[in-house]
Write a structure and sequence with these properties.
Pfam families: YjbR. It comes from Streptomyces djakartensis. This is DNA-binding protein. GO terms for molecular function: DNA binding. A six-stranded antiparallel sheet has the order 1-2-3-4-6-5, covered by helices on one side. With about 120 residues, it is an alpha+beta fold. It has helices spanning about 5-10, 55-65, 90-105, 110-115; strands at about 15-20, 25-30, 35-40, 45-50, 70, 80-85.
Length: about 120
């Protein structure tokens, strides 16, 4: 996955926005003000921090050793750092980004979730 593909995919979700609260180099993708992906898109290798179910996080780290690791500078129980331009299939990276978005949306207040469901 290229940086441009990762950015485009993150922004393809309903109400997703890109922000730069930490520095101009760090893209933070949010929905309703809540972070679901964080990446230094110019870094090599390309890595992205993604929210993950704690049980899935452990399984993914075990199955993809070195490519999916505990989230760098994040809560290690709920976040993974995923190497997006390495040996992981692009489809898996997309699924992990989508799962992260879905987890964040599920944690939003009901009114916010309902607004996101409207066209």
């Amino acid at each position: 996955m290229t940086p441009q593909e990762l950015r485009a995919f993150c922004l393809s979700f309903n109400a997703a926005v890109e922000d730069f609260p930490f520095s101009p180099e760090i893209s933070v993708f949010k929905v309703q003000g809540k972070l679901f992906a964080l990446s230094h898109l110019d870094a090599r290798p390309l890595k992205v921090n993604l929210k993950c179910d704690p049980d899935d996080a452990i399984r993914l780290r075990r199955e993809h050793e070195g490519l999916i690791v505990p989230g760098w500078h994040m809560n290690k129980r709920h976040w993974n750092t995923v190497t997006a331009d390495g040996d992981l299939p692009d489809q898996l990276v997309r699924e992990l980004v989508e799962d992260s978005y879905d987890l964040v949306v599920a944690g939003l207040p009901r009114a916010d979730r309902l607004r996101l469901d409207r066209p």
